[in-house]
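#lab-general

N.A. 3:47 PM
ok so I finally got the sequence cleaned up, no stray characters, all 77 residues accounted for. can someone with queue access submit it? mine expired

B.Y. 3:52 PM
send it over

N.A. 3:53 PM
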Amino acid sequence: MSFRFHPEAEQELTEAVQYYEEIEPGLGNDFAVEVFAAVQRAIAYPRAWTVLEGEVRRSFVKRFPYGVLYAEEDGAS
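B.Y. 4:20 PM
back already:
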């Protein structure tokens, strides 16, 4: 299964990585790793999290106060 970020989410991710990197070198990378782990959990178990609205769900990011919002798309592979 594949995934893609909404352009605004991708921009937010980039800015958050830069923010954490400014706080402590390497922390931005740690954040990015945790975000992608949350994405992988959502891909592996797409219905594991509670629906927030419509078909949108949230997979929490460990160690950081973020969540990955996602929805399954028809025909996604």
